[in-house]
Every structure is written in structure tokens, then in C-alpha cells.
């Protein structure tokens, strides 16, 4: 009765990738997509249920994703039967709100409309009716770069037994999350709503970022009752009436002198305000482990995490749910920079800061808080050994 939907439209452009982010390797020869497929296959084997699986791809990610699944995980099924194809919308000229024209590269005139596009895409593609016709009642939706977002039978049972229309997984905000969208209650009707930083006026920014006042943020792990989604969408012309986020950018993101435009987006979690009886559940931080930059990937590839045969990626028990923190200088912004960096042991690390070009030899162990500083442009080798609660100036 359940479908797992992964939002898989994003390219890893911020990390220097020109392919879909889910093709990044977590372990040698094992990409995010492999692990997602393993998770589904394991669920099917363990439960005896034919858990459905869909990927919401963009036109930028579709070919790479389908090609990879065909080659690497043929047992997951026909990739074309696993695809939701995300819509595209025009970028708007800031001054006139007309669709922008960019003759140098017309493709740059268009952009994806945000993760909330999963709802009209399900409806418009016919997948919503198809799933309902097959007896599928529940959807678990999450980002493809969040390997902590695994279908949890306990959460599914809670969602189903409570007959909830919509359930958002939230977790406690920390200072690191203060710019993330937080949960709030709408005064006029008591419904829950999601407020993103782009919707916050400047005078209220300090309050928005107060992690004691607004204690919970959206993990973007969402549970939806598809029957109730169909009812709500049918009552509002086949769409959900969601707040629109206005992102100010340039038509060519690599050219700051190109035309000033707005990209209009909607947040998937903002649909919480569309459903009577929608709820939120406080989940462990382990269910929110996204890879947004190279430091996240570096940690995920380390021995602080273990990868199971079932595709689950978890912190080792000795970490007690607390991942190490890694801060990189600008030399390490792109994924390619990790290939020659080496991989020290982070099993007992609390904090690793690296500034300047270095390479870890095999057999380096980081314990506690370690800072490595290289002010020169020459690459320095970190020799094998244990580095514990120290600053290393090279």
C-alpha cells in the first residue's frame, strides 16, 4: 500500500558536478542510487510486500539515472516505469514579471519549480490515479541526497493508524540549522505551516533564526495519504494552493551581469497547511543526513558511518548519534578535490578543520578536535599517526 518517492532532479553543480547528484559514490563503486535501490529491494524481501518506488527526475537527471539503474541495478525494474518527470517553469524578469528571453542559451530561460512540484506532477502524469487504482494509499517522499530517509515501518504504522492526511518529519534545530525552514502554527485556524527563510521579512530574521523560539525544522521527509491528496487537489483545480517563494537570481547563474530574474518555487513541506489534521513527528537526527557539500560527503565516506547490505547508512554505535564536524577551506569546494585528499579515520573525531592544500597518508587517525593549517600553496603530506586535540601548523 506504500510508494517510496525520491526527489532526484538536482545536479551537484555546487560541488562541480555536471551529472545528477545521486550518482556520487558513497563507497568505491557504490553510489547513492545503488543504496536507494538496495533499501527498496531489502524492504520487499523483508516484508514480502511489493513496495513501490518512484524517482522524480528532471530533464537534466533523467537520462543519467535511467542509464545507471539499467546497468547497475536491473533487479529494481524498468527505470522508465520508475520515473516521475518534473515540470519546468519560465524564469521571470524582475522588473516586469514577464518570461525572460536569453538568446545565447534558451534553456536558461527555464527552471524547476521546487520540490512541491511532486504534487502536480503526480496528478498531471496520471501516476496518482494509477497508484490509487493499484491500491497504493501512502507515499513516503524524501530527498535523494538524504540517506537517512529510509521507509520506517514504525512511522508508517503511526501514520496509517492515525488516519493522518499528511505527516512531516521534523527534528530539533541547532545553530547549524537556523536558516532552515521551521514549523509554526497559523493563528487564524491553528493549522501547522512551514515558514522558509525566503518568506521572512528582514526585521523578523533574528526571531526566525532563534532556535529556542522555533525549535523544529523540516527534514523534507514527508508522508502523504494519496486518497486525501487526491481529494484536496480535486477541490482546488488539480493543484495545491501553496505559498510561492520568490528567489532573486540572474538568468545565467554563472554570469552576475546577466538579466536579473525571479525563480518562483514552492516548498514540498508547505503542503502541511493544506490538510485538516496534518501533523508533525519529532524524529532522531539520524533521519536527516543530507549531502549538501564536500564536507558532508567526506564524513559520509569515512569510518564514522557504516553501510549495510540493506542499503542503510548509519553512524557507528560508538558515535551515539553524533556525526563528526568537518570544515574545509575553499580548496575543497569541488568533489574532484576529495579524490587526492585521502581519507583519515574519523571514528573518534569531534571536529576536523582543514585550511590549505594537504594530503592524508594512509593510517591517519583524528581524535577530538584537530585543526590543520597550511598557509602555503605547496601541498603538505599529513604523515601516518594519531592526531588528538591539537592544531597542526605546516
Topology at a glance:
Elements: E1 2-7, E2 25-27, E3 30-31, H1 32-47, E4 52-57, H2 62-72, E5 83-85, E6 89-90, E7 92-93, E8 110-111, H3 118-124, H4 127-133, E9 138-143, H5 153-161, E10 166-172, E11 182-185, E12 192-195, H6 205-208, E13 216-225, H7 226-234, E14 245-250, E15 260-265, E16 279-282, H8 294-300, E17 305-307, E18 313-315, E19 325-328, H9 336-339, E20 345-355, E21 358-360, E22 364-373, E23 380-382, E24 385-393
Describe the structure.
- This protein has 394 residues and is α/β, with parallel strands linked by helices.
- It folds into two domains: 2-287, Spore Coat Polysaccharide Biosynthesis Protein SpsA, Chain A, CATH 3.90.550.10; 294-393, UDP N-Acetylglucosamine Acyltransferase, domain 1, CATH 2.160.10.
- It contains nine helices and 24 strands.
- The protein has helices at residues 32-47, 62-72, 118-124, 127-133, 153-161, 205-208, 226-234, 294-300, 336-339, and strands at residues 2-7, 25-27, 30-31, 52-57, 83-85, 89-90, 92-93, 110-111, 138-143, 166-172, 182-185, 192-195, 216-225, 245-250, 260-265, 279-282, 305-307, 313-315, 325-328, 345-355, 358-360, 364-373, 380-382, 385-393.
- Strands 5-4-1-9-13-10-16 form a seven-stranded mixed β-sheet. A four-stranded parallel β-sheet has the order 19-20-22-24, covered by helices on one side.
- It is globular, with a radius of gyration of 22 Å.
- The N and C termini lie far apart (58 Å).
Amino acid at each position: 500500500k506504500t510508494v517510496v518517492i525520491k526527489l532526484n532532479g538536482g545536479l551537484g553543480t555546487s560541488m562541480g558536478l555536471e551529472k545528477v547528484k545521486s550518482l556520487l559514490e558513497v563507497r568505491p563503486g557504490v553510489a547513492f542510487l545503488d543504496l536507494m535501490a538496495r533499501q527498496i529491494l531489502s524492504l520487499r524481501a523483508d516484508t514480502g510486500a511489493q513496495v513501490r518506488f518512484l524517482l522524480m527526475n528532471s530533464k537534466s537527471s533523467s537520462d543519467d539515472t535511467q542509464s545507471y539503474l539499467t546497468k547497475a541495478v536491473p533487479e529494481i525494474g524498468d527505470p522508465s516505469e520508475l520515473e516521475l518527470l518534473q515540470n519546468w517553469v519560465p524564469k521571470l524578469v524582475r522588473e516586469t514579471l514577464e518570461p525572460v528571453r536569453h538568446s545565447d542559451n534558451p534553456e536558461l530561460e527555464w527552471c524547476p519549480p521546487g520540490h512541491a512540484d511532486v504534487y502536480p506532477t503526480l496528478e498531471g502524469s496520471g501516476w496518482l490515479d494509477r497508484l490509487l487504482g493499484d491500491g497504493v494509499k501512502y507515499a513516503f517522499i524524501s530527498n535523494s541526497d538524504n540517506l537517512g530517509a529510509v521507509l520506517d515501518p514504525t512511522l508508517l504504522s503511526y501514520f496509517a493508524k492515525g488516519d493522518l492526511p499528511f505527516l512531516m518529519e521534523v527534528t530539533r534545530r541547532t545553530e547549524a540549522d537556523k536558516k532552515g525552514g521551521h514549523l509554526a502554527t497559523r493563528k487564524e485556524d491553528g493549522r501547522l505551516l512551514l515558514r522558509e527563510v525566503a518568506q521572512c521579512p528582514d526585521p523578523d530574521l533574528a526571531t526566525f533564526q532563534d532556535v529556542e523560539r522555533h525549535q523544529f525544522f523540516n527534514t523534507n521527509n514527508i508522508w502523504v495519504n494519496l486518497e486525501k491528496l487526491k481529494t484536496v487537489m480535486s477541490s482546488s483545480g488539480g493543484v495545491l494552493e501553496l505559498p510561492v517563494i520568490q528567489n532573486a537570481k540572474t538568468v545565467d547563474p554563472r554570469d552576475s551581469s546577466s538579466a536579473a530574474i525571479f525563480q518562483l518555487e514552492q516548498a514540498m513541506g508547505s503542503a502541511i497547511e493544506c490538510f485538516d489534521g496534518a501533523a508533525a513527528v519529532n524524529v532522531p537526527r539520524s533521519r536527516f543526513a543530507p549531502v549538501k557539500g564536500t564536507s558532508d560527503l567526506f564524513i559520509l565516506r569515512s569510518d564514522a558511518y557504516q553501510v549495510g547490505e540493506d542499503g542503510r547508512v548509519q553512524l557507528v554505535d560508538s558515535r551515539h548519534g553524533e556525526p563528526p564536524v568537518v570544515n574545509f577551506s575553499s580548496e575543497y569546494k569541488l568533489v574532484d578535490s576529495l579524490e587526492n585528499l585521502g581519507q583519515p579515520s574519523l571514528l573518534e573525531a569531534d571536529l576536523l578543520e582543514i585550511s590549505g592544500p594537504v594530503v592524508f597518508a594512509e593510517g591517519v587517525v583524528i581524535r577530538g578536535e584537530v585543526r590543520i593549517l597550511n598557509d602555503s600553496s605547496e601541498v603538505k603530506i599529513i604523515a601516518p599517526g594519531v592526531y588528538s586535540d591539537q592544531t597542526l601548523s605546516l
